[in-house]
Every structure is written in C-alpha cells, then in structure tokens.
Amino acid sequence: MRVMTESPESVEQWLELYGDSLFKFALARVRNVQVAEDLVQETFVAAIKARDSFEQRSQVKTWLTGILKHKIIDHQRRCAREQNYEDADTLFDELRQESFDASGHWQIDVAQWSNPDQALEREEFWAVMNRCLDELPEKMREIFLLREMEGLSAEEICKALPVSSTNNVWVILSRLRMKLRQCLELRWFNRAPDG
Amino acid sequence: MLSCKEVTELASRRQDGVLPLRTRVAMRLHLMVCRMCTRYVAQLGFIRRVMAVYREREEVGKREGLSRDGRAKIREAIRRESEK
Fold first, then answer.
1. Is residue A194 one of the residues assigned to a domain?
2. First to last CA, chain B
3. Is A2 helix (H, G, I), strand (E, B) or coil?
4. By CA distance, what is B61's nearest residue in A?
5. Radius of gyration of chain B (CA)
6. What residues pair up with A109 in beta bridges, in sequence order?
7. Mean pLDDT score of chain A, rounded to an integer?
8. Does residue A111 come out as left (phi exceeding 0), alpha (psi in the -120 to 50 range) or beta?
9. What is the ipTM of this complex?
C-alpha cells in the first residue's frame, strides 16, 4: 500500500508520532529552536508533496528523517553562502597563544581528567557540554557537527559548504576541539574533579 | 621532533583521516616523552565519545520536543498543503 492512498490526517498523525523526535534530531544539528521547528515544518510539507514516491516498505520515521537531513544541509548551505571561512587561521588565536610558548611547547597545564566517561551519565555534564557547543562560532560549529553527527569527511564538507580547502576544514576542526577541551576543563573537570 | 602545538593539530587530524606513516611515528615518539600531549590526545578521544553519545541520544538539554506554538504552526502548514 502506498501512502498516497491515505488521508491527510495521516500526516497530522505523523506529526504527533514523530514531530518531537524530528525536532530533537534537527535541534541537535542546528542548535537553534526556531530554525529546528521551521525545518521540521518544511519536512512535513515536503513529505506531503512527495507522498507518491514513498513506499510503505520503508519506515515512515526513517523516510521523514531522510527528508529532514536534506533540509538541514540545505539550511547550512544557505547560511554558509553568506559567510566566508577566511578567518579559520585566526580562529581562537588567543587560546593558542596562551597555550603554547614561542617554540610551540605547552605553557599551560593540561589537567588530568579523572574518570571522564562517568560524566556521560550526568545531566549536569550535558548542560555544560551544550553550553560549550553553543559558545562556538555558529558557522564553525556547523562544520564540527557535520563531521561528528553525519560523519562527513573533510572533502565532503568542502563540497557541502563553501570552505576553500580540506586543509581549512582540518584547521577549523582542530581549533574547535581545542576550544571544547578548554571549555570542558574549565566548566566541568576543574569544578567536579571526581567526575 | 614535533612541537606540542603540531601534535595537537595532528591529534585532531588523526580523527578525520589517516596520517602518513612517518607522521604517525613522529607523533608516537613525541607522546612517549610528553605527558601533556598524551593527556590532550586522550581528552580529544573523550570529546569524540561525547559526540557519539550526543548523536545517539540527541542530548540537547531539557527540550524534549516541539513547542505548543511550533506544533500548531506545523499542523496548520500540513492542512494548508494537504488542501492544495
């Protein structure tokens, strides 16, 4: 049976059944409530238009998530078009300067994190992690999320967004990870050393 | 001998692809004698695990779903589109 034979109410039922999980999926990737809701709306509208192509053998949720994924990438591409990534080289320069001496050796203490994995079960840790992610520059964060959430390679990220080179992607990822590390150390591990 | 600054960049790069053998060896030699970089590399590994859990559980904080207004707006959009 194809979905095109179902009544419009079915799509509303999908909203009840899958709306929240699609929203969370989008929010985890765009980190903006309004944008996430808009993308979920675009997904349902697109789903109505594309009902004919939906085969019942695939799961509705998987199908909707697939549409949403495209919407997210489109959104990121749209935003990225208005930005440039030329400033990757100076990203978090201050942090690097205070971390290393002139010869490139550490001049700060990289603290030992005790039992870091225990933090994964703590709600407070996730509040900190979300705050650290929110503090990253938005356009750079998108690169990090594409890498970590969608598993895109540097080459694929270059194709999806107007970043000039894979080397630039690697530089950005390296700086973001350094910043996240510092944020977690300051906000979590230095405050709760027992994890 | 690689500098710590270089090792931090390579540690990140290693998460995004395979490093040439010569670079891997140089990095290993550095890590054998540098406690701070060893910690740094382990911590980048932890951040990667954090992101894997984030991806799996969509740990976006307390927001469990659509707002009431957001849901109403989407429902309205579905109705409009269905009537076309």
1. no
2. 68
3. strand
4. A127
5. 23
6. none
7. 86
8. beta
9. 0.87
Chain B residue with Cα closest to A106: B4
Would you call A113 and B37 a contact, using CB atoms and an 8 Å cutoff? Answer: no
- The three-state secondary structure class of A26 is helix
**Residue B3 to residue A100, Cβ atoms within 8 A:** yes
- Within this chain, do residues A74 and A94 fall inside the same structural domain, yes or no? no
Q: Look over chain B and give the mean of its residue pLDDT values, rounded to a whole number.
A: 92
Distance CA(A146)–CA(A154), nearest Å, equals 10
Same domain assignment for residues A99 and A138: yes
Task: Give the C-alpha distances (Å, rounded to integers) separating A98 from A101, A140, B39.
Answer: 8, 21, 18
Best of B1, B56, B58, B80 to substitute, by most chain A Cβ atoms within 10 angstroms, is: B58
Tell me the pLDDT band of A55, cut-offs 50, 70 and 90. Answer: low
Are residues A94 and A182 both part of a single domain?
Answer: yes
Instruction: Name the pLDDT band for A53 (thresholds 50, 70, 90).
Output: confident
